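Structure request: histidine kinase, Aestuariibaculum sediminum.
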Amino acid sequence: MTKAYLNCLLKFTFFIFLSLQISCKQKEDAYKFTIGFAQTGFDDDWRKAMNQSMRIQADFNPNIDLVIMDGEDDVDNQIEDIEQLIKKGVDVLIVSPVKSKPITPIVKRAYNKGIPVLIVDRKIEGSEYTAYLGADNLQVGTDAANYLASITSEKSYILEIKGLPGSSPALERSLGFNNVIKKNNHLEVIQSIDSNWESYSITDTLRKVLDETKSINYIFAHNDRLALGAWEVLKEKGLQNDIKIIGVDGLSGPNGGIQLVQEGIFMATILYPTGGDEAMKLASSILNGQTVPKNNILKTIVIDSRNADIMKNQYDKIAQHQKDIENQQNKLKRQEKIYSTQSNILKLLLGLLIISVLLGAYSIYSSYNLKKKKRELELQNKKITIQRNQIRKIADEVKKSNDAKVNFFTGLSHEFKTPITLILSSVETLSDNKALKDNKLLREIGLIFNNSKRLLRLINQLLDFRKIEDRKFTLRASETNLFEFTKTIFRDFEREAQKRNINFSLVCNNEALSVFIDRNLMDKVYFNLLSNAFKFTPNNGRIHIEIVDDEIGNCVKIYFKDSGIGIPGKELDNVFKVFYQGSNNNKPSSGIGLHLSKEFVDMHSGNISVKSKNGTEFEITLPKGKAHLASEEIIQEPDVIYDSGLKLNESDFESERFEQESLPLNPDDVYSVLVIEDNIDLIQYIKGKLQNEFQVYLSNGTDAIEKALEHVPDVIICDVNLPDKDGFEICEILKNDLRTSHIPTIILTALDAKDSYLKGLQSGADLYLTKPFSFRILFQSIKTLLYNREKLRYYYINNIHKINSNETFGSQEQDFIAQMNHIINDNLDNSNFSVEQLAENLNVSRVQLYRKVKAILGVSISDYIQNMRMEKAKSLLETSGLSISEIAYATGFSSPSYFSTNFKNTYKITPKAFRNKS
Ligand code: FRU
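Returned structure:
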């Protein structure tokens, strides 16, 4: 629309300009006439004067265009000129015919064509022309003869130099002259010579005539140029004073007839006016439609020494006048030019004005259009917004429904985990059943166990996939001995390798190498790669794990090579893509295992790649150190302790492990574990697993605190989702209670979100394990925690003397011991001071005190007090001057002999001997 309008505007502007131009042109053309003048020739001054006067006249009238053609004094040229002027379509044709006869037909043609024809100076034959203008040449001849007759009465001989034969002036001038001469007897034309109007044409003839005829007194030349030429010949002959000359034309100006008369060169000249201005005036009248006389005769007079000056003055005045007119005309032309420039500027301005008006109109139109468009766009925008909102709503609904489905799916998967864990535990319980020993059902049970494990792994993979998709995984990397870690998983597959006669090996070039890995995730990566290797490697094949500590690359490379079916080369790029299924793989596969493996390795800033040649080789590269990890990604975990006694997985499901019997335990010899869990099946499962090695106490959660305070166990395993208080609360309470604060606590839950993990740590838990937990890891964790506590205990024992109330170590346990030491120290000389009294002072029960001290220090509280008394006695024996009896009472012994017996029992030396020795 806009483009079309602009186009239209441009066209319109162009049209306006064109109209302006045309209107001006038309204005000029409306009055413009062309007058064509076929001039005889341009060479002589008379013709030049004639042309000049015509041009001046033409200039007076801007509507007249004057075209003068040069006939070069040649008839044929002139005929051609006239033809051209006819063709040009001149409005008036002026002709000064070179000769009369040959020019007549072409003039006739023009006249008959309707072109007004004005004959000037020389005549044509007939009367087929509009008008004639010129002096009367008969009269010119007559005047010349009469003048001669008037100045002399003596017999005089005259030489006549005539003009061009065939031209009317030559004819008429001669005729008029001779007519008068004949009438005067004393005058005689003794010779006539012809010319072409120019002097060169007569000089030779004249010389001859003068030589032959000595009596010539006068020369009558038909024009001043012929007369001057004659004078020059006379001068040549020295006759210039003897023979007088009469010319024709009487031009003013240098070498003009008037000047030559003034100078005495000519006796006289007959004025023959050019009639240039009169011819133009006559042509104008013809153009104006006026009727003009056919014959327009110009006046002629004789100019001799008597009137030459006047004539000269007259002509000078006329010339001056003409010059003024010319100046005026030039001024006028300049004015016209200025006018035309201004008029052009005006036109341009007018044009610009029109354009600006049009542009203004266009801008109004555009703004209107824009507003309209804007309104339309706003409307459209509104519609789009509504549609977008609708789409958003639909998308939200779809998302909600999708989320609901996925949540349902995820929840369901979570739900699957506990029953499968229970199936597994039940299978294990069955396996422990003596009645099943040697029973064929054992194989079936193994099948259930293996498949339940597999199902559990698949569910875990699905949940992991969902977590990866939601970017919910957080790396929990801990410093791990890679060889030990690999070895524990390696062992899980060893049995299967044996069974299928697969050459299964593990080598490592640096068994002490530690890397920061998320054990849980890396366990899954290993498991996936090894499961695949075993899945696709035929019996009697080879599977090889190699760990290479690449010191130069500051990384570690783990290779998993197998001699299986391999992966087709063109599919290698796709193996880590989700839902990839090898084209040569007929075994069922979810297609997410390798995808997850890659994601997990990527999370470690590592890399996993695959090659396939005579089997498959996966290469995992992990960076060493922890610079690539964020601080929140690093956690503390117990060292991996490779425990060859722990094995429970599908490949290990061999009949011999079902033969193991649980041995009755002596509670004093073993560590105790309190399991807080409300799922009866699970609690029984854990109990079943642990009771061979530990004294196991159980709580369904409702009495967790009471049970913990009652038994003060060595380790607590606590679920999170419990009926009364949740696991985090229980843990917090126990950790804040002096009586139980020392007990290592493991939180065991199906919740594995990052928040829950953090909450677990905040509550003071020592470990956080997610369900379904690997019993192997749980067992190992308990052992590690106990081992760590043993180390702590060792520390306390060796630093017991340092721990007093004046020093605070920060930990609750240290505070407890410091407080306890303080109370004991205060009562060292009190033989009645009892454990009950101490417990009362510490606000704990006797049993709790006993258990706590036993747990922290590894000795009974009474032994501990006794120990302190002995230490004090020892120091008094060494440093004080007190007697042994006094020392015995000062350290709370009721009798010195009892003190001595005890001292000897403890230090294998009597107090007396000890003092002497020291
Ligand atoms: C000019 C001229 C004049 C003469 C006239 C006759 O060409 O020769 O000198 O008077 O022509 O036509």
